[in-house]
Amino acid sequence: MGSEGPPAVTIHATGFKKFHGVSENPTETIVSNLSEYLKKKGPPKGLILGSCSILETAGQGALVPLYQTLQSAVSGKDSESSNSGRVILLHFGVNSGATRFAIEHQAVNEATFRCPDEMGWKPQKIPIIPADGGISRTRETSLPVQEITKALAKMGYEVMTSDDAGRFVCNYVYYHSLRFAEQNGIKSLFVHVPLFMTIDEETQMQFAASLLEVLASLY
């Protein structure tokens, strides 16, 4: 009998490209450099970093690469039966007005874009997934956001729990991801980060690595 402990958690990460008003999206840098950063730092125990994808900052325009990421997360899970269920979809988005990190608890089935997305789409008060019902429907992550936030705050990060991921592309992607996660027995989490001029790149990379460590230990 092996005493290998629980199987590793596989985390698939996404960030976003630049968009209106944000010429350099920190999440593109964070997610693009995450694998290399973890190699240098030494990856957290019990963690496998799966795909790292950068999405267009567009509602419908993000869906094809998003669902490719989601499907690959599930097909990977099926092929490694020992990893069954221990998969997290981790999405990073920027909140340019924020002064700290925010762990998002839920997404709302409403697309009301304050400005057109990068493909020119500007929906107003429409359900993201009509089959889910009206625009007041919410989906919540099954990960323990309060515990995650507390653990990161203990490490010295400026971090909070949030119940409002907005109504723009971040919320749009999170809602699709939460629905997919629930249907496929995996987990999903969205994290908002500030601009690099508010919290510098090195601190944000450290935060991302610490977040992976916390997720691996709590799941």
UniProtKB/TrEMBL annotation:
SUPFAM superfamilies in UniProt: Pyrrolidone carboxyl peptidase (pyroglutamate aminopeptidase)
Entry keywords, A to Z: Cytoplasm, Hydrolase, Protease, Thiol protease
GO molecular function: pyroglutamyl-peptidase activity
A cellular-component GO term for this protein: cytosol
Highest taxon in the source lineage: Eukaryota
The UniProt record lists the keyword ATP-binding: no
Any GO BP: proteolysis
Keyword Metal-binding assigned: no
Family: Belongs to the peptidase C15 family.
Name of the protein this chain belongs to: Pyroglutamyl-peptidase I
Organism: Nyssa sinensis
Lineage, broadest ranks: Eukaryota, Viridiplantae, Streptophyta, Embryophyta, Tracheophyta
